[in-house]
């Protein structure tokens, strides 16, 4: 089933999933980074002691840093998936190569046909001459 852009439904869904994954990963990286910056500035209004808050902030920074790494790895996997998709679905260039080869082979075929017809005509003329010579020969 084709969509307006000419993509089958499965490809359309795949491309949408790539877009969603990209947006989600970038959003995750940005949000986690912003939170780390806030934690580093020490902007939290809390009843906890400075030492306890500092430990908690450090722990949260580690978790958020791990989230950023996870999102980065997810983006690298996405790039790999998109490259694979492009390799497997690069039909325009494959079609272009096939078309060029077809043209080349049609040209070669036309040349061969021309040579064969020329050879046929030469042989027919030679055979006609031989036949003429045979029938008019005194050595029959």
Automatic annotation (TrEMBL):
- What's the protein here called? Mediator of RNA polymerase II transcription subunit 22
Family, per the entry? Belongs to the Mediator complex subunit 22 family.
Gene source species: Diploptera punctata (Pacific beetle cockroach)
Q: Where in the cell is it found?
A: Nucleus
Q: Which domain of life is it from?
A: Eukaryota
Q: Which residues form a coiled coil?
A: none
State the UniProt keywords alphabetically. Answer: Nucleus, Transcription, Transcription regulation
GO cellular component term, pick one: mediator complex
Name its GO BP terms in alphabetical order: regulation of transcription by RNA polymerase II
Source lineage: Eukaryota, Metazoa, Ecdysozoa, Arthropoda, Hexapoda
* InterPro entries named in the record: Med22
């Amino acid at each position: 089933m084709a969509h307006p852009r000419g993509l089958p439904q499965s490809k359309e869904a795949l491309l949408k999933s790539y877009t969603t994954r990209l947006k989600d990963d970038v959003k995750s990286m940005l949000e986690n980074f912003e939170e780390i910056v806030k934690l580093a500035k020490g902007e939290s209004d809390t009843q906890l002691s400075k030492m306890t808050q500092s430990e908690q902030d450090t722990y949260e920074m580690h978790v958020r840093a791990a989230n950023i790494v996870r999102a980065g790895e997810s983006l690298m996997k996405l790039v790999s998936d998109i490259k694979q998709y492009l390799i497997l679905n690069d039909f325009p260039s494959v079609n272009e190569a096939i078309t060029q080869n077809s043209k080349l082979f049609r040209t070669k075929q036309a040349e061969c046909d021309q040579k064969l017809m020329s050879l046929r005509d030469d042989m027919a003329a030679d055979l006609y001459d031989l036949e003429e010579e045979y029938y008019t020969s005194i050595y029959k």
